[in-house]
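pipeline stage [seq->struct] | target=ATP phosphoribosyltransferase | organism=Actinomadura sp. ATCC 39365 | residues=288
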Amino acid sequence: MVSLALPKGTFLERPVLDLFAAAGLEVRRPSERSYRASIAYDGGVEVAFHKPREIPLAVERGVFDFGVTGTDWIEETGAKVELVEASGCVPPWRLVLAVPSGHPAVDAAGLPAGARVATGFPKISRQYFQSVPLPVRIVPSFGATEAKVPELADAVIETDGPGSALDEHDLRVVATLRTCLPQVVASPAAWRDARRRAAIQRVARLLASVDGGAAHVLLTVRTTTRDLPRVAGSMPERSWRAGTGLTENLVVVQGLAARRGLAETIGGILAAGALDVIESRVGKDVTP
């Protein structure tokens, strides 16, 4: 059995749970307010819910074998963890610099020297303003960062994603510091252990399969034995021979093709001599 930390109390919670469910890894807990849960897979996975900012360091210390958090929090905490898998199935979000809508600034350089910037990401923020460069006063924030303006701050650096409150607080984005994604991370101790590492990789592959299914289609292609070499050469890299047709001179081949550039891929297969190409939806794409 391995232990897993999942994000709770932020916009990441529901999309991550939906991702696990889509991968066939339903997270079962007594109620949505519970901080303990389990996944009935591969001998069992013990699940605990924590703030995304707490997960990287907890995983680094080995409190949990692996976890899901944001790339922003991995960078901010500087946690030494193993990066296992990033999920493109959960929409990305941005870490942004925002000012009151009436502020004259159109970028970071438009802030006056000494401006107060409230943020829950002081490390990333300091590095950003050093690169501008602009001397500002970083005001650490532990929640409701948008509400710090104007009494406690002149600007904020905050996440801009689902449920963002920037518009509600009449704040305008003037710069994007990072584009962030959810990331599966493993503790160094668990990664060194062959059994736990294999278990973590199996879960990560199932999560990635949801992305693969969304990003790929299955192509079923009929061709003659005469044209098979040319058609096979035009097929996507991940292809195989599926069988023969109803007559001896027909062959069926299949392959996983990326949705991006699909028209060009199919056009190339037909130009190579394929009789027809059938496109099918991929539910999951699990790579061993």
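stage status: PASS
auto-comment: The domain at 2-90+181-192 is CATH 3.40.190.10 (D-Maltodextrin-Binding Protein; domain 2). The chain has a mean pLDDT of 91.
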